Structure formats: structure tokens, C-alpha cells
Amino acid sequence: MKTELTNQEVSIAIVEDNSIYAKVIEKELFNRKFINFKTYSTGEEFFEKQNEPIDVLILDYHLDSVNPNAMDGLEVIKKLKTIFPETYVIMLSADDNINVAVVALRHGAHEYIVKSETASTRMEMALNAVRNAINQTRDLKDSKKVNAVMLVVYVLVILAVYALSLLYPSLFKMG
Fold first, then answer.
1. CB-based burial, 138-154: b 16+ in 10 Å, e otherwise
2. In what order do the strands lie in the sheet with 37-40?
3. pLDDT, tens digit (0-9, with 9 covering 90-100), for 8-31
């Protein structure tokens, strides 16, 4: 039986140093039935408190308004990929710079969204794509498990037939 991951089941962390914008993201997620999320104001706080894998990290690029020496988004991605390599990263930034976007994508971001009037729609599309990708990964893992079980059963049947042919050769005589 195939079970699809719902919005409620997607685990999300938000790392955003602008508390007002963090609330906007939270409201957008809640309106779209994403309820399993936590918000952090710096990458350091995220790594200190987040000790379980998450499905998605919504990450601001500039994280230095609370702490001028805070990690930036790229540093967070680099560290995240060593701890939780399966986590999808959506970089959300006011920095409308193609070079920054390319660098973020090269370091493991799956999406780079500029904070603008279309950011909410693009984030929803990105989250739906992530949910679908997670579902496909789960289906693939389930399929591999089924294939492995079938292989074991096949080998056991072959071994059983072979054992029967050794124990009862008359059963397998032709003619």
C-alpha cells in the first residue's frame, strides 16, 4: 500500500534572522497546512537545538542582523550537508544576485528564492516538489525492499527444490 507524505508530515526548519519575515514564513507554511516546523534566528542556534534529521531547511542567506559574526547561509549549508545530507535546502534571500544563487546551488541548495512578491508562490511550489521527491525516494526504497525479499524467496525456493532433489531423487526422474 502506497502512502503519500502529507504537508503535516514534512518536517521543516526555518533559519531566518529577521523575526518579522520569519513570522511571515511561518504564517505561509501554516496556511498551506505545513505544521511541523521550528524557527531559528541563526545557523548556530539551529545546529545547537536541531539534533534530528529534517526534510527541509528554509534558509536565509544573510544571517548577521542578530549576531554580526553569525554563520552565513553558505556556511550553514556546508555544515548541514555533513550532518543531515538528505535535507532539502530552500535558500530564501533578499539578495537578487545570480552569482550568489549559483554558489548556493553548487553548495547543495535545491532552490534559490529571492524575497519578493512571488516568493510565497515559489516557496509553495518548491515545498510541493520536495514533498514529491521525498515520496518518490520512499517509493524507491520500498521497491528495493520488495525486490530484496523476492530475491530471498526465489533463492529459498531454488534451495528447497535442490534439497528435495537430493533427498528424494525419484521425485525428479523423468519418464
1. eeeeeeeeeeeeeeeee
2. 37-40, 12-15, 56-60, 88-93, 111-114
3. 688 899 999 988 989 989 998 888
Residue with cell 537545538: 49
Question: In angstroms, rounded to a whole number, what is the distance separating the alpha carbons of residues 60 and 22?
Answer: 10
Question: What number of CA atoms fall less than 13 Å from residue 82's CA on the CB side?
Answer: 6
Query: Residue 113 in contact with residue 122, Cβ under 8 Å?
Result: yes
Distances (CA, A) of 61 to 83, 103, 144, 163: 19, 11, 37, 64
Give pLDDT tens digits for 45-98.
Answer: 999 998 888 999 999 988 877 777 888 889 999 999 999 998 999 998 888 888
